[in-house]
Amino acid sequence: MSGTPGSPMSVYYFSSLVLSNGLLLFAAVYSVYVFAHVRQTNNLQWFVAFLFGLLCIECLNKCFIYLLEWQDTSFTYPVYVFLEFFCLSQWIALNLGFSKRWRLAATLGGFLLFIEAVKKWSSGALFSPWFSKIILHLLVITGMATVLLKYIREENMLSPVLLLYGVVILYYTTSLFLFLLLDQLTEVSVRISYLIWGLNNTFSAILYGSSIYVFYRLKRLR
Length: 222
Known about the structure:
The chain has about 220 residues and is mainly α. It has a single domain, classed as Up-down Bundle (Rhopdopsin 7-helix transmembrane proteins). The protein is built from 7 helices and no strands. The chain is globular and about 50 Å long. The N and C termini lie far apart (about 45 Å). Keywords: Membrane, Transmembrane, Transmembrane helix.
C-alpha cells in the first residue's frame, strides 16, 4: 500500500499490522500447545486449525514479499477464503451437533467459494463485494450467534470460551462492514484506505488476543 511515509494513518496501519501478526503467531503456537496438553478444550480443535492455517498463509505471504520480492500476494486469498469457511463451518457444525452429511455439505461449500475466489482473482475483482463472500460472513455470524446462545442457556456459569464466540461474532460483523467498503477504496484518499485496513488489523488483533486469553484460562481451569 503506497502513501505518505510517516503520516499518522500509515503509522497506525503498519503498527496495527505488526501487532496483529505478532498476536496471530503467539495465538497459533499457544493454542496448539494448550490443545496438545489439555484433554478437554471445549470443541476448539477447528478453531485451533483456523489459527494455525492463518499463520501458515501469513508466513507464505511474508516469504513471497521479503524473500522473493513479490509485491502482489493476492493469489493466496482464495486459499484463505476456503480455509476460513471450512474451519469455521466445521467448528459451528461440531458445536451444534450437526451430522456428517451437513459437514460434508459445508466442505463442498468451501470448495465452491475457493473456485469463485479464483475466478475473482483472475478477473482482478477479488476485493470487490461478491455475493458468496457476503453469505460466508453472514453464515459465520448467525452460526456463531446460535452457538453462543446455546451455551449461554446450558452453562450454569460463564465459561471463558463464551468470550471467544462473542469476539468471533464481533470480528466478522465489522469485517463484513469493512468488506462492503472495499469497492470504494479507489475513490477515497490513501489516508482513508490506511484507516480502513488499520481497523481491520485492529479487530484481527482483538480476535487473536482474546484467543490467547481464552486458551490461557482453559489451561488454568484444567
